[in-house]
């Protein structure tokens, strides 16, 4: 039977929520799956240029991994038409959505009937941390911890919050962004960073977006080190500071996101003209997460 899988993009490392806090956004990876004689992945959008069309595709590799995990020797062949609005290697969860897509593809084709919690555990084991993958599965904001077990809290994000998304025209690999981070933090830095993260989470629950924006900019865990990899960061932060609650690096970067009220949309034409080399998008949180649509 033909079906579609729709997975939202994610923004992770929300300020001081390094490797632990992420939010699903309304950009999507969509798979249109139909039975076939052989496996074939077809890219229908520019964001997927260069993605493998055969079994070396990451989505297939993840699906195969899940199949083996649950005792299946293989997967029934399918043609998978892929459409994506999520730019690659920009800090918006493009690789994480592929991981989630592979898990969901295996779940549907093999009728595994996995719960969202089980899918999130598998995705976190593959990804290494939950802040990108878990929101794509659950929707909303997910605050997660992955240690001996996966624990999380999901918080819906209200529609009054707008994500002003600024996407540079170059990629930044997660491995490169992690390479600039220190091997260890001092006790003083850890206490400071943890207190900022704690207040950030409290602000999320109170929907105090101004406080959340302030706390995001005070992060000491990753942004001070990664800003040098995104030359536009300080310029853009200063450029729009008067009109937003706060600005942070999305994921590993280079995408920058500012939290703002809806009225900010009136400024976008002016900003696009002033800074044309940045792709500007106004996004909202997706509170649904991964969807499967059967036809």
TrEMBL record:
- What job does this protein perform? Catalyzes the ATP-dependent phosphorylation of L-homoserine to L-homoserine phosphate.
Q: Where in the cell is it found?
A: Cytoplasm
Q: Which Gene3D superfamilies match?
A: 3.30.230.10, GHMP kinase, C-terminal domain (3.30.70.890)
The record lists the catalysed reaction(s) as:
L-homoserine + ATP = O-phospho-L-homoserine + ADP + H(+)
Catalytic class of the enzyme: transferase
Supply the name of the protein.
Homoserine kinase
Q: Does the keyword Ribosomal protein apply?
A: no
Q: Which GO terms describe its biological process?
A: threonine biosynthetic process
Please tell me where ATP binds in this chain.
Answer: 87-97
Keywords from UniProt, A to Z, are: Amino-acid biosynthesis, ATP-binding, Cytoplasm, Kinase, Nucleotide-binding, Threonine biosynthesis, Transferase
Q: What is its EC number?
A: 2.7.1.39
Source organism: Alkalibacterium olivapovliticus
């Amino acid at each position: 039977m033909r079906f579609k899988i729709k997975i939202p993009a994610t923004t992770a490392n929300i300020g001081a929520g390094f490797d632990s806090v992420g939010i699903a956004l309304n950009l999507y990876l969509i798979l249109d799956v139909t039975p076939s004689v052989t496996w074939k992945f077809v890219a229908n959008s520019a964001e997927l240029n260069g993605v493998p069309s055969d079994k070396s595709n990451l989505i297939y590799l993840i699906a195969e991994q899940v199949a083996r995990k649950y005792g299946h020797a293989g997967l029934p062949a399918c043609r998978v038409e892929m459409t994506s609005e999520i730019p690659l290697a920009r800090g918006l969860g493009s690789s994480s959505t592929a991981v989630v897509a592979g898990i969901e593809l295996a779940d549907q084709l093999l009728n595994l009937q996995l719960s969202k919690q089980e899918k999130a555990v598998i995705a976190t084991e593959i990804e290494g941390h939950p802040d990108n993958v878990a929101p794509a599965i659950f929707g909303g904001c997910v605050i997660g911890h992955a240690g001996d077990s996966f624990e999380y809290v999901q918080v819906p994000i209200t529609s009054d919050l707008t994500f002003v998304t600024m996407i540079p025209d170059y990629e930044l690999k997660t491995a490169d962004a992690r390479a600039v981070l220190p091997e260890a933090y001092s006790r003083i830095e850890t206490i400071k960073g943890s207190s900022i993260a704690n207040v950030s989470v409290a602000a999320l629950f109170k929907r105090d977006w101004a406080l959340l924006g302030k706390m995001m900019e005070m992060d000491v865990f990753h942004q001070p080190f990664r800003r040098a990899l995104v030359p536009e960061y300080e310029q853009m932060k200063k450029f729009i500071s008067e009109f937003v609650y706060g600005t942070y690096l999305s994921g590993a970067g280079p995408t920058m996101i500012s939290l703002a009220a809806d009225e900010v949309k009136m400024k976008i034409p002016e900003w696009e003209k002033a800074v044309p080399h940045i792709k500007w998008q106004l996004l909202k949180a997706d509170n649904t997460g991964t969807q499967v649509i059967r036809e």
